[in-house]
Every structure is written in C-alpha cells, then in structure tokens.
Specification:
The chain is an alpha+beta fold. The protein has 3 domains: about 10-50, no CATH class; about 60-190; about 195-325, no CATH class. Helices cover about 30% and strands about 30% of the residues. The strands form 2 sheets. The chain has a 6-stranded antiparallel β-sheet with strand order 2-3-4-5-1-6, covered by helices on one side. The N and C termini lie far apart (about 65 Å).
Length: about 325
C-alpha cells in the first residue's frame, strides 16, 4: 500500500473526482487503491510528500550573524545531525534514508521524525509529547499525544530558518535549532519581512489575493470594527464596503488602521491539477502569518517567494529613504 497518511482527505477526494473515481462515503484507503489501479500511484506519492512538512503558521527568520562554519552547507548540517545523535535511525549511511519519515519513541524532548534535503534547503519534522486530560467514566486521566512541527533551514547566500509552528511554541523551537546549529542563544533574529500594513498589501498584490475579512482599529469608544465578506467577495473591490467606509470617515474617524486581515487566493497544482483554495491570516499587530488550513508545499513555496520579494522591496525602499536623508 502506498503511504498517504499526510494527505488531507479533501485533496484525496479532489484527486479522485478529477479522475472520475467515486469518493463520497468512502475511506481514503479504498480511494487510493482505485487511484493506483488507474496508474496514479506517482501522483499519490507526490501529494503525500507535499504534505509531509505541512504547517499553518509560517515564520521566516534571519539571524544577525552567519550560520556557524559547521552548519554552513546542507551536507555539513546533516552530518552534524547524524554525528550528534539526532538521527538515530541512520546508523551507517544516510544516503538511502535521506528523504525518509519514521516514528521515534515519544518523549518530552524534540526528536526528528522526517528529513528531506532538496537543493540548498533541509526540511525537518520534529515530534514531542504533549499532555492533555480526558475522562474515563468519572476518572480524570492524564494522557499524551504526538505534537508535530516542521522547520526548514535555507543555506547559501540567503541564510534563513523557516519555522512552521504555532506562535506560542516559536521561542522553544528557535532555542532548539540554535542549540543544534551551534548558534549562541544571545544571537538576535529578525522576522522576514516585517508584516506591516504596507507589506501585507504588497503580499496580497503579489499573490493576487482578495481580502475576505478585515479588522480595523477605530480611535473612539467603539475600539475596533471587523468586516466579513460573503464567500468569494474581495472587500477591497466591493462597492458596499467602500460605501460603509466612506460613511465612517464622514464622522471624522479613520478606516485605514488595519489590525489584521484574512485573505484568499486560488492555486492550481501543475502536477496533479488539484485546485487549492488557500486562505491565510495576516496579524499586523503581532507580525504573524498563518494559513487557516493545511496547504501543500508548492503553495507554501509560492507564498514564501512572495514574502521574500516583499522583503527585498522593503529593504530597497529603506535604503532609498536613507540615501535621501
């Protein structure tokens, strides 16, 4: 059986629909078997890889110093992981296991459970125990479950570390990667790019993304107002939204102090022809970028490329302003 555990059910269903295979009221395993029968095995493998290092929160960081010499290239970094016991599954040669996924014994410590080397980047999936409580009859039982997060280290001329974890867990994952890579804990880091109102607009423009929801601060007793558009409506182009904002501005209150926005865009995967309805949130106050659902790697790459372009634009504008001064 081809591994498909990483693929969200809705994309298995969409692939089945594209290939005229029944998917309603059927288990994923049955659908996958039918896809393999019509020679779609490679597409299933591709999709499973696309979601192996998934993550809804995307934080791209740049540290103030260069990566240590021992982690200067993907090859050196992987050798460090192997030599320091972070890859216990690789006991001899990592060449045949390099793009593998495995299940280490769960513990409170972070453990690598998947690894991929692609170009100048190394992808890691980490797992550790998280605790929760549940009731069995009248008894409250402490139990645990595996918690996953993905990290991508980009080497070369543009050294950056990409964290795909919740904002609340970000600090401990940064500390963990600093320790592995030999970066001193005092080393400062910067979010790339800084998610200002202007950068959020540049990002949406590059992605041809519409605004589904916007939350604006109002310097009054009201405090703030959130506008939610109907499905598929882009509030930046909606006449009703413009009329409402004009009415508010006539009272002397501004409508341009954006706190956060929810945006959407469509992306067709060139390999499978699956259409991804991507929705993401940009929290300008906290500087947080987050997808609302799991999306494939190709969509994450598409957005990251836009974020980097926004960062380049911001740097150019800053340098230009400094030159004029």
């Amino acid at each position: 059986m081809v591994e498909h555990g990483n693929i969200p059910k809705k994309y298995i269903n969409q692939l089945a629909k594209l290939n005229k295979i029944k998917f309603r009221s059927r288990e994923s395993k049955e659908i996958i078997e039918d896809l393999i029968k019509i020679n779609k095995k490679e597409q299933v493998i591709y999709l499973n890889e696309q979601f192996k290092f998934k993550g809804r929160n995307i934080t791209l960081l740049e540290i103030e110093s260069n990566f240590p010499e021992k982690c200067k290239t993907p090859e050196k970094f992987i050798n460090i992981l192997q030599r320091e016991g972070n890859l216990p599954v690789f006991n001899k040669s990592i060449s045949t296991e390099l793009n593998s996924e495995w299940r280490p014994e769960l513990s409170d410590e972070f453990k690598i459970c998947a690894l991929k080397h692609e170009g100048s980047s190394v992808y890691l999936k980490l797992v550790h125990k998280k605790y929760t409580t549940k009731y069995i009859d009248y008894d409250k039982i402490l139990t645990y479950y595996p918690s996953f997060a993905s990290i991508v280290v980009h080497f070369g001329s543009e050294e950056k570390i990409q964290f795909r974890c919740s904002n609340t867990d970000l600090k401990k994952y940064i500390e963990h990667m600093y320790k592995i890579m030999g970066i001193t804990q005092e080393t400062k880091f910067y979010t790339v790019p800084k998610l200002t109102k202007e950068n959020a607009k540049r990002l949406c423009d590059l992605l041809s993304a519409g605004v589904a929801s916007t939350h604006i601060a109002v310097p009054s007793t009201v405090g703030s107002i959130r506008f939610n558009g109907k499905k598929g409506i882009n509030l930046t182009e909606d006449s009703t939204m413009s009329t409402i904002k004009d009415a508010i501005e006539k009272t002397g209150l501004p409508t341009d102090q954006t706190m956060d926005e929810t945006c959407f865009f469509r992306f067709e995967d060139p390999t499978t022809s699956i259409v991804v309805e991507a929705t993401f949130e940009v929290n300008i106050q906290k500087g947080v970028f987050k997808f609302t659902t799991d999306v494939p790697e190709v969509v994450i790459d598409h957005v990251l490329d836009a974020l980097i372009r926004v960062n380049i634009t911001e740097k150019a504008l800053t340098q230009s302003a400094a030159t004029k001064e």
